[in-house]
Here is the input.
Amino acid sequence: MSLDKDRLTLDELTITRGIVRTFMEDFLDSIDLDVAVVGAGPSGLTAARLLADEGMTVAVFERHLHIGGGIWGGGMLFPRIVVEEEAAALMSDVGIRLREWEDRTVIADAVEAATKMTAAAIDAGVRIFVGIEVEDVVVDDDNRVCGVVINWGAVPAAGLHVDPLGVRAKAVIDGTGHPCEIARVVLQKVPDASLDSDFDYVPGEGSMNVRAAEALLVPNTREVYPGLIVTGMAASATNKSYRMGAIFGGMLLSGQRAAELVAEIVAERG
Here is the structure.
């Protein structure tokens, strides 16, 4: 079967114009935000969706060409995750099918979870930009975080020096996972910066203790520096809290808590 070339009006310029023009329209609508979320993992996606549901302008910046963070691999590449019943509603609300399991937990398919959480965030109005890396923060005259500095992810990967662009935001969520990259940048680059933590540096997370890790994750989700909230494994890393493996209820509840904190900050900043 061959295509009837006489009936086709598509050409290379049509494709290029469509991609560039629509991307730039969305991009320019996303440089003055209520909230910038760094990292498209489960906690960041949850926070972004809940904030967009409240009518805020939210963009997620993900350096990789895929979303979901570490959720895809489930446990040791078995694409299943465990979620406590307390957090199950945050998954069922976006259509993720759950199987009842032991000890008041449910099981979810990791691929279904990543894709449906992402689709729900987009449906809520979140803009997700993949292949864009946050390399720094923007601060105001009081050294409060008020935005992020972005570049194409391919630029540092290629070892190039290309000046970045700035995005303004009333609050920034560090959802970069284990590396806790945005909090580290603040400590390294903002004069006299210190985190709301027991440490004067980012220590990373400790060894595995599932119950303790899950119990501590929501309390560790907080504004660690004016304008900057840590969520998910970034919240654990700022306190040398335990790691938990392929159980994701705490991650989702951490995203929910981050959204609550951001809502308070945005309300204060107007």
